[in-house]
Structure formats: structure tokens, C-alpha cells
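User: My instructor asked us to take a sequence, write out its structure as C-alpha cells, and then describe one feature of it. I'm not sure where to start. Here is the sequence I was given:
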Amino acid sequence: ELFDRIAAVDAEAAAAMWIGTFHSFGLDLIRRFNDRLGLPDDPKMIDRADAIALLEVEAPKLNLRHYKNLWDPTENLDKILAAISRAKDELSSPSDFEALATAMVAAASDPDLLIEAEKQLEVAHVYRRYEELKAALRRLDFGDLVTLPVKLLNEHPDVQASLSEDYAHVLIDEYQDVNRSSVALLKLLRPSGEHLWTVGDAKQSIYRFRGASSVNLANFATDFEGADGGRLVINYRSSDEIVKTFSRFAATMNVAKGKDSTLEAARGASGNVPQHCQVDYAV
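Assistant: Let's start with the prediction itself. The C-alpha cells for your sequence are:
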């Protein structure tokens, strides 16, 4: 009987736990609340290749000048889509992007700055048309998987309140890799920050191409007022020689300046001294 009761508790705990990435969690919310977002029951994704093909057909109507490439239109369209993806990471809508680009054009003080501003304005116009085309097909792209849940929770307080209650405890690993849209979604789920735990290392922030920044880690106590912080000092993976080498290198990194980054190796020494070898590359 005792084992049956333990099994029942384990089953209940497992059913109440959700594990995944921000984007997989966002897709789950989109599917569950598709009606609130005006989407079909199981919205389909559009990948980068399909998105390029969609814009390539539309290219003659986009009035591109700086991004016009008659030899290979797909090359510049890919660059534009990358910029659109970054805009979504920053929760910048087509209107927001256009307003910023227009301000850049007005503030441009030399020809080079003006060209760059005009390029951003072209991206803004393509961004708007891309969203229209995608909406007509009722498709989602990768950036939508976080921006749409943010929109959902902002525009539907009942959904936000319900989800905040459902996900009473939240743990985020690799917090240095979150971007602005991810932080916005997290703040809507746990607005008070209560029962929220995060683990991260600013020295491992490697996803800058999609808006991740160690600044988000540094701003955690500001985003969630009253948060407590601590530092892990024991390394359980590597030998003492590797840990000490890393600790010396970490002290020179910009994100670690003025901070104690030293670690201790639980495994002790291996007897092998790390070596840095450089070799010639021959084709």
C-alpha cells in the first residue's frame, strides 16, 4: 500500500511538471490558446527556406534598392530575415521597427549612416509584408514561438493569471542565454519573482546572434525585485588542472572583471598539465 501511495504521488508530480525550452513552451501555449490568437488548432511552422521562397516571389513588389540582388536574390533575403528574427527577439513589431528606422534616417549625419538607415527602413518594409504573407497562410516562424505567447499573456489577463497559478514554480537553466522576449514571457509567468530560480554563467553567453546577453543575468535582481543571488564554487566535472586554468582565463574576461570567478575541483588533480598547441593548416 505504501508503494502504491508513493507511485501515485510520483505520477501526480510528473503530470504537473513541464520541461522544455522557451520556444517549445511557447508552441505549447500557442496550440492550447490558438483561438485567442486567431490561429488554427495546430498551426504549421515556416522554416527559413520556405520564408525565403515566399519573399522571393514577392521580391519584385518590395521596391528594394540597397538589398536588391538580381544575381542571387536569396542571399539578401536571408539577411533581411535574420534581421527580422532579431527584431522579434527584442519584441519589436513591424511598426516599432519602422519607427526606429525612420528616426535613424532623420538623424543620419553622413552618407554612410544614411545608407545604413535606409537599409534598415527597407528591412522594416519587408518585415511588414512578410508578416502579412505569413498571416494569410496562417503560419508561424521561430520568433513567433515566444513573441505570440507574450502577446497572449499581455492581452488576456485571465490566461496570464491562470498560467501563473499553473506554473507556480519555475526553474530556468542557462539564464545567460535568454533574450528580451524570453525575459518578458518569464516576467508574465512569475511577475513577483516568487518561486523562481535561475542558474547561469555570464562567461558562457554564446547566443548573441539571437539577442542573448549576459546583461540579462546581471539584471535579474532588477527584473525581479528582491531576488537573492549566490555563486557556485565547486566544479564536479573537470580535474584541478583544467579548473585552475579556466579560473585564470575567466578573470581576464570583460564579463568577469571585478568578480571572483575561481572554482574548486571536486575531482582533485589528474597529474596532466593542460597544453596549448598550435598547428599549421594544410589544404
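For the description part of your assignment, you could build on this observation: The longest strand covers residues 170-172. Try explaining in your own words what that tells you about the chain.
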